[in-house]
Queue: 2 jobs
Job 1
Amino acid sequence: MRSSVVTAASPEETAAAGEALARELGPGDVVALTGALGTGKTCFIQGLARGLGVAAPATSPTFVLVNEYRGRLPVHHVDAYRTASLAELVDVGLLDLMGGDGVTVIEWADRLEPLLPPRTVRVAIEGLGDEPRRVAITRPA
Ligand SMILES: Nc1ncnc2c1ncn2[C@@H]1O[C@H](COP(=O)(O)OP(=O)(O)OP(=O)(O)O)[C@@H](O)[C@H]1O
Ligand SMILES: [Mg+2]
């Protein structure tokens, strides 16, 4: 397991941390984000998507569970905040997405912990409001 921690002093730095992680990602990778409401999960994913060559800014899926972007790899952006059950996520095909060739990034990943593959990259963000964010990234062995 390899871990790293960065401090992000602005939304741009949070996004830059996501953009940096994107350079390590390949087909089939899963990135699980945790952190309280408004810590910067979407902001991090915007940078990550940019790093994967996605042109349009990432927006959190609101009315659907999964947004799709096209970059050098397909990016699936899942937000489990409003998810009622694990079955709902299985029904929309989350396991197939995670088993496919794209990169799957998940906000509120603690809500679907049992579905995450062992190779999942963990991103835990702390800090609220104007505070700097602590972004801890843990990669599988
Ligand atoms: N390092 C930072 N310093 C200050 N503000 C930041 C930092 N990173 C992100 N933010 C700001 O925090 C706010 C919340 O960001 P964002 O929407 O990405 O959070 P989130 O974790 O996705 O929230 P939600 O739980 O609602 O999905 C935004 O206004 C964003 O610009
Ligand atoms: Mg969000």
Note: The pocket of adenosine-5'-triphosphate (ligand 1) is lined by residues 8-11, 13-14, 35, 37-43, 60, 107, 130, 132-133 (CB under 6 Å).
Job 2
Amino acid sequence: MTITLPAFTPLEDSLFLTLCARALDNRSAQPILGDAMADQIVRTLDYDYEKKLNISTDLRLNATLRAKKLDEVASRFLARHPNAVGLDLGAGLDTRVVRLDPPSTVDWYDVDFPAVASARERLIPARPNAHVVAADVRDSEWLDALPTGRPAVIVADGLMGFLTRDEFVSLLNRLVSHFPSGEMVFNSYTPFTIWVAHHAPGTKTVADLVKFPGFSDPHEPESWNPKLKLVEEILMSRDLAKVPSKLRWYYRLQQHSTSWSRKGTIVLHFSF
Ligand SMILES: C[S@@+](CC[C@H](N)C(=O)[O-])C[C@H]1O[C@@H](n2cnc3c(N)ncnc32)[C@H](O)[C@@H]1O
């Protein structure tokens, strides 16, 4: 059965880039994530990604490798904290909660704009203790309604680029003061990768929506809030497994230099 969704804003529409990247990954010979539900959602929506998007192998790899890294951080945290709260900010139609399959003792919150939240409810099967929050993450009311007093793991995959620096800093500060402790993991941008997002053919559909300026020093968020401590800077070029051989030489070259690796996808992992 095909489902037709109400029209999204261009910002909401950005979810199709990452969703379709994961669907194409699932159809590839050597999937990185193997997200069959992402694939099914794209088929259910009959989304014409070939006409609307320009998903290169590199974009597909970067989107799925970073999703896998974020999953790994969240999964390790949930294994250590079975009473945790999990948040996916700007969750789009990502099926992370299905991939992570947290125990019922975990409360998981997928946050996105109301139109996306209702699309999630139509397309992603409900699960006990998985909650969809219809909100703009820049507002504070939605967070006030979430439990306090429990450790939290907070994931933001593909969100940061769409916020200004002040909006992102303020969001992080609100999260850190809401929960007693936790971890935060997100894909980050340097000024160079922000420049690429503005100019690369693959991100043409979102280029005008990118507001974040980027930062080069992975420790910079520690200066935004003294409770934030960098656990790890994860550089995708260090993960060669499943990179197709035609691109492997490029990743291998990048491995020789951290600053060159930072020209690719970066995931930052913090504790607080
Ligand atoms: C590139 S998509 C990524 C979606 C999802 N995380 C994924 O990996 O497939 C960015 C998402 O952030 C959401 N978003 C952007 N700004 C937001 C805001 N201020 N509040 C809530 N969601 C926002 C968009 O609606 C979109 O779903």
Note: The two ends are 45 Å apart (CA to CA).
